[in-house]
Write a structure and sequence with these properties.
Helix 1 packs across helix 4. Strand 6 and strand 7 form a beta hairpin. About 30% of the residues are buried. By secondary structure, the protein is an alpha/beta fold.
């Protein structure tokens, strides 16, 4: 059954990837109409999240953000499909790093690097940084249930010199690379809600105390990695700019969870600047200790 689903859907994804960007975004407008007005995909969750995270805005203001978000979500999905066939030259033109020297300077410290980012703007196209770096790029992801699509995602990332490891493979992989003295940059998307059973720290996110992922910080401390934050800005449709901010070069001297809290603060600032580009479809605030104004 998995193979049948893959064989049916793959030609559609490939066909989308072959569309010129002008047609891609026209198609995205059509998809938006279906997703938002007909299917109503996770509209209730998005609306609840916006009300929780942005209580200072009026219902009308949040509705505007909601519609902009679904437009962006459709664009992002189709841009992910476009990654199958996009050229290096084209993605470099559309996803630019404004201060790559900050990252490259950190590589000179001869340590591996933990890169923390959120599900904001084009987190998928950030994989293009592998064209510019010297460390081995490794992305941490959750395995896709369909093994054929999982293999497809890995093949696409390999076009950008990126290697994927599942969440279960993360610690053994980092441990082996540490022993072998293989310098790597590990990408952690650390903004989603962890399981309560595996929660070690609660932190403020959009003014609300919630459980937060601390794996990036804790692994950086255990294996003496430097830590950097990737901030992405959507300049206009189909064009993004990314910048780096060093969070720590001496992780073992930083109190536990301080780096994680700093990451969440930076992500929050980014969201408040343009909330329509954050991934609002997940129940990020399903566990709360308290809400503050």
């Amino acid at each position: 059954m998995q193979l049948l689903v893959y064989l049916l859907i793959y030609p559609i994804i490939w066909g989308i990837s072959m569309l010129p960007f002008r047609l891609l975004y026209i198609f995205s407008d059509c998809v938006y109409g279906i997703v938002y007005y007909v299917i109503g995909y996770r509209k209730k969750i998005v609306r609840e999240n916006l009300a929780i995270a942005l209580p200072h805005l009026s219902d009308k203001e949040r509705l505007i953000i909601e519609k902009k978000f679904f437009h962006h979500l459709c664009d992002t999905f189709l841009e992910m499909a476009k990654t199958m066939t996009i050229s290096q030259k084209e993605i470099e033109r559309r996803y630019k790093f404004t201060n790559l020297e900050v990252y490259l300077e950190l590589e000179k410290k001869q340590k591996s690097i933990a890169l923390l980012c959120g599900h904001y703007a084009s987190y998928e196209w950030a994989v293009s940084m592998n064209f510019y770096i010297n460390h081995k790029g490794i992305g941490i992801y959750k395995r896709i249930a369909n093994k054929y699509f999982d293999k497809l995602v890995q093949d696409i990332r390999s076009r950008f010199k990126a290697h994927l490891v599942t969440t279960k493979e993360t610690i053994p992989t980092i441990s082996k690379n540490f022993r072998d003295k293989t310098l790597c940059v590990y990408g952690f998307a650390s903004d989603q809600s962890p399981k309560i059973a595996t929660t070690y720290h609660w932190g403020k996110f959009m003014g609300i105390e919630v459980p937060v992922h601390t794996g990036g910080e804790m692994l950086a401390k255990k294996y003496d990695m430097n830590v950097i934050f990737l901030r992405t800005k959507k300049v206009k449709r189909g064009f993004y700019e990314a910048s780096f901010e060093v969070l720590s070069e001496n992780v073992k001297e930083v109190p536990n969870y301080e780096i994680t809290d700093k990451f969440m603060t930076l992500l929050e600032q980014q969201i408040l600047e343009a909330p329509e580009y954050y991934l609002w479809t997940h129940k990020r605030w399903k566990h709360q200790r308290e809400a503050t104004s």
